[in-house]
Amino acid sequence: MKILVFNAGSSSLKFGVFDMAIEDCRVMKGEFENFKDSGCTLHYRVGGEQSETRQRHEKPATIEEAIRHVPALLQEFGYEHFNAIGHRVAHGGGEFEEATLIDDDTVRYIESCTPLAPLHNPANLNAIAVSRALWPTLPQVAVFDTAFHHTIPARAYTYAVPKEWRDTGLRRYGFHGTSHKYIALRIAKELSCPVTDLQIISCHLGNGASVCAVNRGFSIDTSMGMTPLEGLVMGTRSGDVDPGMFAYLGRECGLEVQAIENRLYKDSGLKALAGTHDMREIEQKAADGDEDAQLAINVYAYRARKYIGAYAAAMGGLDVIAFTGGIGENSASMRRRICDKFEFLGLHLDDDNNQTVSLKGFEAPQVQTFDSRIKVIVTQTCEQYMIAQETRHLLSQRNIISAQKSWHIPVAVSARHMHLSQKDVEKLFGKGHQLTHLRDLIQTEGWATEERVEVVGPKGSLKNVRILGPARERTQIEVSKTDTFTLGIEAPIRPSGKLDNTPVVKLRGSTGEIETNGLIIAARHIHMSPEDAIRMGLKDGDYVDVRLGAGGRGTVFTNTLIRVKEGYVTEMHIDTDEANAAGIEVKTSGELVKNETRQDVDIIARKNMELDGKNNDTVT
């Protein structure tokens, strides 16, 4: 499959041609910039990532003219035929959680999101309109900067403002999602580790800048908010400011809201602090003694450090800090300034490695010392590559689903329960005690026991919590989000067995009590037999969306993990909160509505994964 990708900005047009059948798949890369009445500059590379980058003058004086010039340029280099076109779109609002085929309804919705991204969505829409006119018969796909961040929980995306404001769509959305997603996957590949085992802070530092907390493969927070204005100091954007400044500037300077907003977007950030948005110039001016440039560098680094520290705390741990973007990739001194204050976390930068970073393709060098607990990795972002991947995936998925029947999967409600280690069994019920079999479960490797335990938290307790056998290597307690409020403790959403950095609770049995970690909200998942996985075109580690429930309370559960193992009976497990949201009491069936295979996520099969469980005759 050959895919043409457009990334249209307010002042430049980037494009790429991807042959998805070969390893070095970006066979052409181009960028038009410096538009003037006399034309523009084209930077281009033909023949793969290691080819030489060249530049030349071209006639187009606007981005629209540049898009119309692309077919002739591609023909010049022998790239005339494509299977699809992918477009980067900045803001997808609350509607688009994934890439989507472009039609008139899609265009109208993107237009409705323009107030949320006034500098970006109009340029994206312009590229879409011209592209649809030039290639009317080709499928065209919109890939949204905001989509990766739809996994951010409500506590992170909600602004504490009146409800009627929030009802209009006022919330944090986040941007650079395509970049942060690529970085997380690239880091996992570099470390030969499942992305679901990693806690990554991705730092996209360029003219636009954002930081993202990627917790075990999912975005849980990011520095940009409702618009790309919130967060870090950027080239010409202010980043975080006190919203009270709008009233103050209105009173003191007579400025209208629109004028203030324009200046926050176009005349703030590094440009306001140092007179230029180019970090290379700022660093040179700072070295020459310019105090404004020195202040700009310190403000930029401080804001980045503050977000990194906050996100390390939000995730409850940190494995990797990744740098990308023009500044993140090229400024060794900025990487040093940002990392210097994290020695208390066990991060130690290697100066020689940091100073000698050279990125020509998909390299991802590590620049920490050998004894650093946290890894620091620098890599180029490949947003166009991710757009091509998302486009290919969507079209492949549509071809599969259109040719097959709808898949319906049994769904069972999993109540709170726990799995105990043998050591903890004996502490709670007496030395030498063995769990007593009460009844079998649908997943045959697990069974319900007669024993019950009280789970005690800082605020309250959960009595008579079922134990599932057999005993495991580690104790794991699975509760719902509502249960965590009863206990007065926050628990992470995790796949079974992922128990590092989980909160500690007290367990009371018939003869003793213990304190142990291992409290989680179980990530929704589907146990699946190998035969059904083959029939549905799925594999262990895939993520799918499932529609369940009927009437006004029906809902779609996204990011549902597929767990394939010999002996499993195909069944989806949700907790009681999720069941209430969908209007389900005990059991129902769900329709597989999307094969959401997370592209390139190398989730290594858990050969030693043991079964979870629940009462109501299911194992989770």
Question: Would you kindly provide a brief summary of this structure?
Answer:
With 620 residues, the protein is of the alpha/beta class. It folds into three domains: 1-144, ATPase, nucleotide binding domain (Nucleotidyltransferase, domain 5); 173-401, ATPase, nucleotide binding domain (Nucleotidyltransferase, domain 5), CATH 3.30.420; 404-620, no CATH class.
Mean pLDDT: 89
Can you count the helices? Answer: 19
Strand % is 25-35%
**Which CATH class of the largest domain?**
Alpha Beta
Helix vs. strand class:
alpha/beta
Low-confidence stretches: 595-620
Rounded to an integer in angstroms, the radius of gyration calculated over CA atoms is 26 Å
**Quaternary structure state of the chains depicted:** single chain
